[in-house]
Design goal:
Elements lengths: L1 E7 L4 H15 L5 E4 L4 E5 L6 H9 L4 E4 L2 H5 L4 H29 L1 H5 L1 H5 L5 H14 L4 H9 L5 H14 L3 H30 L8 E6 L2 E6 L8 E4 L9 E5 L2 E4 L1 H4 L5 E3 L4 E2 L4 E2 L4 E5 L7 H12 L5 H32 L3 H15 L2 H20 L2 E3 L2 H5 L6 E5 H5 L5 E7 L5 H12 L5 H12 L8 E6 L3 E6 L2 E6 L1 H7 L4 H12 L3 E7 L3 E8 L6 H10 L4 E5 L4 H11 L3 E3 L4 H15 L2 E5 L5 H6 L2 E5 L5 H6 L2 E3 L6 H36 L4 H20 L8
Parallel strand pairs: 15-22, 15-24, 22-23, 24-25, 25-26
Antiparallel strand pairs: 1-3, 1-4, 2-3, 5-6, 5-7, 7-13, 8-11, 8-13, 9-10, 9-12, 14-26, 16-21, 17-18, 18-19, 19-20, 20-21
Helix pairs in contact: 1-2, 4-7, 4-10, 7-10, 8-9, 9-10, 9-14, 10-15, 10-28, 13-14, 13-15, 14-27, 14-28, 15-27, 15-28, 18-19, 21-23, 22-27, 27-28
Length: about 725
Amino acid sequence: MRSQFKILGMDCAEEIAVLKREIGPLVGGEDKLTFDLLNGKMIVESPTPFSDDDVTKGVARTGMRASVWNAAIKQEAPAFWAVRGRQIMTTASGVALSLAFMWHAIAHGVGDALSPEGADSHTFPAASIVLYLIAILCGAWFIFPKAWYSLRSFRPDMNLLMTIAVAGAIAIGEYFEAATVAFLFAVALLLESWSVGRARRAIAALMDLSPQTARCVEGEAVTEKPVAEVQVGATVRVKPGERIPLDGKVVKGSTSVNQAPITGESIPVNKEPGDEVYAGSINESGAFEFTSSKPANDTTLAHIIHMVEEAQSRRAPSEQWVETFARYYTPAMMALALVVALLPPLLLGQPWDVWFYKSLVLLVIACPCALVISTPVSIVAGLSAAARAGILIKGGSYLEAPARVRVIAMDKTGTLTIGHPEVQKLVALNEHDERELLERAAALEAHSEHPLARAILRRAEAEGIKPAPAENFRAVQGKGAEATIDGRVFWIGSHRFLHERADDQGAVHEEAMRLEADGHTVVVIGNERHVCGLISIADQVRPESKKAIQQLKVAGIEKIVMLTGDNEGTARAIGAQTGVEDIRFELLPEHKVEAIKQLVKEFGTVAMIGDGVNDSPAMATATLGIAMGAVGTDAALETADIALMSDDLSKLPWLINHSRRTLQVIQQNIAFALGIKVIFIALSLLGFASLWMAIAADMGASLLVVFNGLRLLAAAGD
């Protein structure tokens, strides 16, 4: 059973913890809940039956509100109070606090208004007290319900800490301090809500990339339709300057398209008939028409949006650490505050009011607000920046992982090379000619999606050869295939397959070795009697591969390994051109898995880069799986932990550095938030810190960690 809920008032990791404690028992455990902080979404997925109404009521008991999530609710504009309520009440609190202070200062002087002795002598004017209480009520309007839940469930949190501090200050007549704490804490929560909203808008901007309507061509007529109503196969016209509404293939016209919103490519890509286009990219120059290949909810952009939204539920190790720390930290600080309030007066005969006040200051300082907000904001900002750079990261845990990678293993074809090999030479043997050789090879490769097979089929098409029907087709994994053509059995495969299928290896073997020494991949075609010939195929190294490898080494990657099923000659030739020194060749998929296991055992943290399909077993075995060239490839998006949306290997060094930068910011935020706590705990015990100073320091810490985290949003342009 699965349900999704829109949660109003969920802007902080602390509130997620509250929801887990309340809703977990209703649905079979906290592990059945996942949260998308950016979109205010809670997802419940449990084999235990549960009622949506029970979940909604459970959320209400926490002081938040829930409604069942659906497309209509998602598109509705939030109610005015939901958007502006916190801002209105915080402003009202600030105004009432200012008026109360001015009234008191006019009546008795500024020194009396600020002095604790003023409270002892009960010099607060009645009007000031009323205004201070109004400031407290408005400032704590959104805090009291959550504090009540916290108290009732015996689960202390920051809302309860603030409420106790405010109530304690009122009890000893410190109205100014109580009102100031309530106001400043409300400001801190408002800023926290704003920071989450800021990151939320960065992701939500993806939603606006794709137009809501498409201009459909039907005969001579052109009709504008909602994209959701456009059928697969429909012809769509796009004018210069417009965003492309759906994925498809160009059928008429030529243009250049800015794919930066999807792939992060900085240079527009030329498009001709037959080329693919993607929803959300921008038509730069000429008008063109394309046929849609996917419905609106299944485009590459739709997948990206879904993946980015779901990424928020996959928490980073630092987030998990902060949550665990806060779970024990808050009760421990409450216990310490109780000790400070009771032991000095009871054991040492110290004044009760002095140590009670110090305990209240300690409660305010204990608020974990800056700590719990420091990590989620940084993670969200890091994910958003990566998405804008054309790198899809599927969660906080995968955002931190590249920073710790020591070894990178790479597939060759499609990663270090362009992945579009072409036939270089046809070597016909045993009285066969080149055309006959190509005919047999095309017939055997007609249904294969392997890059070498596509190269053979492209050459056959260019020479006007139509593949003959192949019967009884059988693939031999990692080696080749065989089938019956015109009543005779033919086989096709690698140089290694030659040794298994033919006896006349001498001269054929020498010719194959010569071609492989030049960096070509050799495909052998034969029948039950002899070898019919050889086809040499070569791929081109990506222009950016060599520089990317150099940058990875500069970035501190200890070892870069090529894992390929290709022959030794081709593998070493590509390695020499790109700067990869550890070459492992003629590997079947299971051999790649074993190689990754060995690297993980030796180095600990290993990333595997491949095409997301053929290399998926090795990618799954590695610490981190990265898909290369994932645009338009649904399987790549589903397989990898990280997807480089364009065929640009230079994004990899950027990813490593971005991950390290993000981890550094998180560590800075945690250290700063905890450091402020330690300093003010010491100051409070020594009597140098007041309530309003403590909350101001906490608010300042929250602001600094938020803005430090949001700096990562600018990283996409680095």
